Amino acid sequence: MSITWFENLVGKENVSDEIVDREVYSTDASQIKGKCDKVVWATEVKHLHQIVLYAKRNKLDLIPRGAGTNLVGSCVPDNSVVIDFSKMNKIIALTSNYVVVEPGVILDDLNSVLRDKFFPIQPEDSSTCTIGGMIGINSSGFYEKKYGRMKDWVLEVEMIDGNGRLKTYDSKVVGKEGILGLITNIKLKITDKIDERSMNVFKYDKLNDVLSKVNELKSNQEVIAIEFINLDAAKLAGLEERYYLIVEYHGFEGGVRDLNEMGRLWHIRKKIFHKLASNSYVYLEDPLIPQENLAEFLYYLETKNIPCYGPIGINVLYPCFSNREEIKELYDTILRLRGVIGSRQGIGLLKKNYLNEVMKEELRNLKEQMDPMHIMNKGKVI
Ligand SMILES: Cc1cc2nc3c(=O)[nH]c(=O)nc-3n(C[C@H](O)[C@H](O)[C@H](O)COP(=O)(O)OP(=O)(O)OC[C@H]3O[C@@H](n4cnc5c(N)ncnc54)[C@H](O)[C@@H]3O)c2cc1C
Known about the structure:
Distance between the termini: 27 Å
Number of helices: 12
Mean pLDDT: 95
Order of helices and strands: HEHEHEEEEHEHHEEEEEHEHEHEHEEHH
Strand content: 15-25%
Low-confidence stretches: none
Oligomer: single chain
Radius of gyration: 21 Å
Strand order of the largest sheet: 12-14-13-16-17-15
Bound molecules: flavin-adenine dinucleotide
């Protein structure tokens, strides 16, 4: 399709079909490669509205994209027009209870202007990921035990659906991975920053000891995050080869109160995936395992030497792989242990065969109402 229509609408500086751009936007953090027809940098809602109507008339596929850090192929194009939201990054309103933002605002940038307030959903990639993308995935973060997930903090989402209607929704459109429409504006709750925090690191040589400690910590209301690192992950991250629990407390019970030291501990945790990825473990899974089968799952990873870390306090773990072929056996194990495949970081292309039928049906119904022409993020999730 010709680029001229887009250039006339958004200006030459906000659209490209240059080979370099098409190459960059042909994938996301999943590393699955698709084919990008052109990239449009969103700047104005009225342009997006025109683009949706044009896509309807011409049966184009539109892919909304924040920072492209999702790991499941949720932004991988299929001869599509990728709509990059990074230029729509204004904080429109800020009160003591809520903020109104454009979708391209980066999470750390938002928190840096909140001063004594705080947006508490803190994914590992908070320095890169955008609020629009976090809504798309229904992101979670280190503090899920206390604060839940993205959908718990969304007050309103303004979106242009696949019919071309600009409407305001509640949290029902959270977690839909761009298959219903283009999100243009978001109103989020915020909360008070927690000043009284402390942390501790527990190191163990036996998995049984880890599990007993996790059980004890889970029932402690002051504990807001329990992060685990297994032996293989510790070794690859250059740590002493032991099991680690990094624990954060609301209050001073936990031990370390020094903000610099706490920053150092979180830094270790935040860098684990980067360390694993630099050792070729670039594929991250995110199963949720029922409490009664957690021990069996951890022993399984152990026997297979699969590096793993993650928020064990909510029964979610992140086993990492260097080869996608090896993941099939993991999925069989998760299903045998009655766990959930793809529990936290989206479904996209990679996990759609594992989404349960009830959720698929619900999404198909929404899709039929809001994007009957199937012009939004073709082939993802359902
Ligand atoms: C190192 C690393 C660590 C991670 N850690 C976590 C973690 O701790 N917790 C977690 O939940 N996830 C995590 N993720 C996964 C992912 O990065 C996050 O979920 C993140 O929120 C995605 O943000 P993004 O801006 O990159 O979104 P993108 O990847 O660009 O998009 C995600 C989805 O949202 C849709 N979308 C984006 N913008 C819009 C819009 N304006 N309108 C409609 N739909 C839109 C896209 O189409 C896509 O379906 C991690 C990823 C990496 C690479």
